[in-house]
Each structure stands twice: as C-alpha cells, then as structure tokens.
Amino acid sequence: MSTVDERRPAGAPVRADGPPPRNRVPRPWTDRLLTVVGVLVLAFLFAPIVVVIVYSFNEGRLLIAWDHFGFGSFRALTERPAIRSAVVVSLQVAVLSSLVATLLGTMAGVALARRPGRWTWWFIGLLLLVSVTPEIVDAVSLLPWLVYLGNDAGLSVFNGGIVRLVVGHSLFSTAVVSYIVRARLVGLDESLEEASGDLYAPPGRTFRRITVPLAMPAVLAGFLLSFTLSLDNTIVSAFVQVSGTTPWPVYVLSALRSGLRPEIAAVSTVMLVLTLLALGLVAWVLRRSGDSATDIARTMGGG
Amino acid sequence: MPEAAPAAPPSRLRLPRFALALPAGLWLVVFFVVPIATIVWFSFGYKPGLFGTHANDVLSLERYRETFSSTFFATFRNTLWVGVAGTALCLLVGMPAAYWMAVKAPARRRGLLIALVMVPYWTNFLVRTIGWQVILAPQGWLSGLLQSLHLTSGPLDILYTRTAVLIGVVYNYLPLMILPLFVAFDRVGEPLREASKDLGATRWRTFTRVTLPLARPGIVAGTVLVFIPLMGDYVTATVLGGARGNMVGQLVASQFQTAQNWALGSAMAVVLILVIAVTVGVFAALAWLVGRPLRARHRLVLEEVP
Q: Quick one: which of A46, A102, A158, B203 could link to A223 by a disulfide (CB 3.0–4.6 Å)?
C-alpha cells in the first residue's frame, strides 16, 4: 500500500481494483485495547465466584485443598442441622426485613415525590446519612441500643434474634427503597392522579388505585433488592444476632476461624443461584415497565 | 400555614405533607439516629473495671487521646492508605471498563454487560472474599501454577498481607465504581461525540474535553461510593488481612466484641467517621484547586458584538 492510500480519509471510496476491505473504517488500536481491558475486568470480577462454584464440588476435607470431584458437600444442606437452620434464619429474616423496608420505603418515596416541601431536605439528608454511614458503625451502635431496649427498657421483643436481625437489615434497605420509588414517581407525570381527583375519587382511593400501581415496578425492585441485601448482610448481623438464630453469613464468618470446609462453598453456590433468580426477576420487572439498560443499572446501583 | 377560614365546613382531618414519610422517618430515627447519638455519648466516657462495658459519670476526651496513641493510630494510617490506594485503583481499572461498556461495546450487548457486572456485586460479599482466599492461598492452584511456570521461586506469599487486602477491596468495590461511571458515560451520548469529531477534534481531545467533563458527576459518585464503605470495611480485612493487614473496622469490632471496652470502641467509630469526612473534604478541595487553572483556560467568554 502506498502512503497516499493510507492517508485516505475514513469512508472514502476504495480503489476499484483492490480487494474489498472487511471493515471500511479500521478499528483503531485503542478500541481493541479497551475491549481487552473490559473483558479482563469481567474475568477478574468472576474469578473468585467461579472458584467458589468449582470448589463446592470438592470432596476433600478442607475447602482450600482440592481432593476430587463429587457432590458430597451439597448433602450438608440436608444433613447438618446447624447449616440448615442458618439458611432458614437467613431466608426468614430476608423476607421479613424486606417487607418492613418496602412498606416504609414505599410510603416515604411516594411522599418525597408527590408531597415535596421544606421537610424533603431533612428527610433526604437522613436517608443519605443512613446510606453513607459505614456498616461497622451501624453495627456497633445498634448492639448497645438493642440491649438497652431489651433489658433496661423492658421491651423484651428486642431480645428475640429474628426481631433484632430484621431491625438491623431494614435500615439501609428502607433508604434504598425510598430512593427507587421516589425516582420512579418523579419521572412520571402527576396528571393521572389529578384526573382521578377531578373525577371525585377520595385521596385514599387515588392512592390505592393510581399511585400504587404506577409505583409497582419500583416497589417490586426495591423488595427484591432488599431481599438480596439482607441475605448478604454480614456485619450488622454478626453484632446484633443472638445465639440460636445465627444467619448464614455469620455462620460462614465463624467457620472462617475454625477452618473452611467445602460445605460452605456448596451452600454459597445454592444461595448464589437464589440471588441470581431474584436479580433476574428485578431486571425482568424493570424491563417490562420500560426501563433501559442504563435505568436498570442506576436502580440496581442504589439510585 | 394560615388557619382555615372559620366559615369552612369541618372537613376531614388534613394531614401534614410529610405524613406518609413519617413511619420511615421515625423508624430511622429510633434505630439509626438514636443509636449513633448513643455511641457518640459513650465515647466521652470510660470503661469501669474489668466487667463493665462503659460508664459516663466522668466525661473526658481521654478515649480520643487513646485512639490517637501510636498502636491504634498505625491502624488508622494503614486503613487510610488502603482506602486511598484502593479507590484510586478502582478508578483506574473501572474507568476504561465502564467506557468500553458504555461507548465501545455493541449497544445490544450493553444490558448483558451490566448484568455481568451486577452479578458479582450482588453475590455474597463474604463468599466472594473467601473465593480470593482460595485463589491466593500458598497451597492453592494459582500458587502451583506460578511455581510450575517458574514465575515465582516459592509458594505465593500474598495472603494475610496488606497487598491481599488491597486486591480484595479493589475487587469487592469495583462494581460500585463501574455502575455510576457507566451511567455517566452513557449519558454523554453519541451525538455530542460526533459533533466534537466533526468540528475537528481528535479522539483524545474529544475524550478529555467532551466526554470526561460531562461524566464528572459519575466519577465523583463512583469515588465516594467506593471510598466510604471501603474505609469502614471489616469483612475483607478479616478474611484476607490476618494480623499484618489490620483495618479500623476490625479494631472497632474487637473493642465491642472481645475487649468489651465500649467507650474506646465508640471513640474509634466516631474518629473513623471524622477521618472519612475529612478525607472526602480534602480530596474535593484538591480536585477543585487542580481543576481551577484548567477551567480558567477553557472558559468560553461570549462578548456581544456592538
């Protein structure tokens, strides 16, 4: 090729006698480099997850030392009562805490979007504070408070393990649900609600029949996100839990000290599949309600 | 609000505008604001005797002085180092990845790519970190691979060091960087970049003068989203750090769980929050100062033609 030919501006007609080029505009090397980096980052993100899934089929005694392939470790889920109860506690708490967070967060989100005023600043400030406080600070401050409420204030509900975990898990999730519901309603015109009011529907009925259905995709997404957040919660759980109601991540954390066995990986693989199902459902709900990939990313990133 | 006119019929009770947000507000005040206020109060107290956890009959700043004593302060310095280095690495790794996802990757694959970033983010934090423990273990497969390729002389000696913690936190918080960056790059949009090219800008100039400034909110959001939880991290350091990679999160936890010194633990938690706030403030000021000459140079002044 001559130098003149190489300087030909992109998109100019090619020489008639030459072979037809495959790409009219050759991709510059920076694009290829970016692709390589992108794929490498994705590989990096999946490396430990793949390792955990592979090692859950380890038949050895210790997780780290690979022995041979087998399904033995998955039997622990049915055979080891401590593991089974940890998983059951986690699921119970996840359902309850996401119900609490969804209820509180949805009402707050509706109020933020439809009844803004000077109070909004205070409230958003509170939500921001909840979401930026390091989890460890949440955890250590909640423990003395729950002990005080349970013992000194005589509210014995707060001595129950499940109640404590539900309270601890619901805080961050309430903020997340409020953001998501608010974001969805702010994006929608209020005219439907006004029309309903003009047609003499009392405010309660307008809320039930118009506002709630409009916010529904966000409410569902918020519920499922709270669910996965709760399943994931380790730090707050480790502090507020009462022996007897140990959730799964805390069980893993304590197993860390006594030596990890392949059962941990096996149960984690099962939990991963559960989480993926929940997330798939969220994405499906959001997509059906007309969100683009970017909107979904924003929602799932927590606003 | 002005009073209702006396002639108005006594209609239904008017609720204040924030009525619907009231339950959530109360919930958060009772279980978030009050507990935090309590530990701030504890931090001015002391540990009475062997079996007490805290007492507040004599108030002092002694616990804060203790927090800044050399043993604990080393951990604070270590945490700050991991926090700043980890956030910088996340930005360094996340920026090209997010740019590729938002701009260069085929548009119809974008949803799938986001899902791929989100899956690790929503996988159990502890389990992911244990995955790294398996990878980095001296008797693990990576160590074996490196040795059989003669890239290292002995078994891999990374686990239970600060390097392992750094790898762990970069890994754990990378999705929190990529997602806002992706949203920001995606918002800039094809038409603006095209216009920049049509006006004769090179690719690099388009990136630095159009894409990057418009994506700035995303960069700020990502940096803050990564830095704050990273500074308070407890799990990563516990799993990968061992004794050599201690972080403040563990220090606070140990004061509450093993040492039973709630006063000191509270002071440490308060200092942790202050360190985070001050660092974010310092970096915001630095970014503003560094950006000032650049902004001044590129400012466009439109003068009216008389």
A: A102
pLDDT of B113-157, one tens digit each?
A: 888 888 888 788 888 898 998 888 888 778 888 888 877 777 778
| Minimal Cβ distance to B36: which of A31, A141, A296 | A141
Contact assessment for residue B177 and residue B226, using Cβ atoms and an 8 Å cutoff? yes
Q: Does the CB of B207 have a partner CB in chain A at under 8 Å?
A: no
Choose among B267, B160, B153, B239: nearest CA to A257. B239
Q: Is A240 on the interface with B (CB under 8 A)?
A: no
Q: How many structural domains is chain B composed of? A: 1
pLDDT in tens, A73-84: 788 777 888 888
- Give the Å distances, CA to CA, from A254 to A14, A230, A251, A258, B238: 68, 18, 5, 7, 11
Query: Which residue shows structure tokens 């001559």?
Result: A2
Q: Residue A229: name the closest of A126, A104, A103, A98 by CA.
A: A98
**Domain that residue B151 falls in:** 43-284
Helices A262-288, B110-122: inter-axial angle, 10-degree rounding? 140
- Determine whether B191 is exposed, middle or buried from the number of CB atoms within 10 Å of its CB (0-12, 13-18, 19+): exposed
Query: Is B96's CB within 8 Å of A34's CB?
Result: yes
Domain of B76: which CATH number? 1.10.3720.10
Distance CA B160, CA B182 (A): 33
**Alpha helices (runs of H) in chain B, residue ranges in sequence order:** 22-28, 34-42, 62-67, 70-99, 110-122, 125-136, 141-148, 162-188, 190-198, 203-206, 212-214, 216-231, 235-236, 248-257, 262-297
Q: B12, B119, B135: best mutation site toward chain A, by most A Cβ within 10 Å?
A: B119
A71–B contact, CB cutoff 8 A: no
> What is the SS3 assignment for A134?
coil
Residue among B238, B254, B222, B230 at smallest CA distance from B172: B230
Q: Residue B94's closest chain A neighbor by CA?
A: A41
Q: Does the residue B78 lie in any domain? A: yes
Q: Which DSSP helix (H) or strand (E) runs through B109?
A: none
* Min Cα–Cα distance to chain A from B100, Å: 6
pTM of the model: 0.82
CB–CB of A131/A176 below 8 Å?
Answer: yes
ipTM over 0.85: no
CB A51 within 8 A of CB B131: yes
**Domains in chain A, ordered, with CATH?**
75-300 (1.10.3720.10)
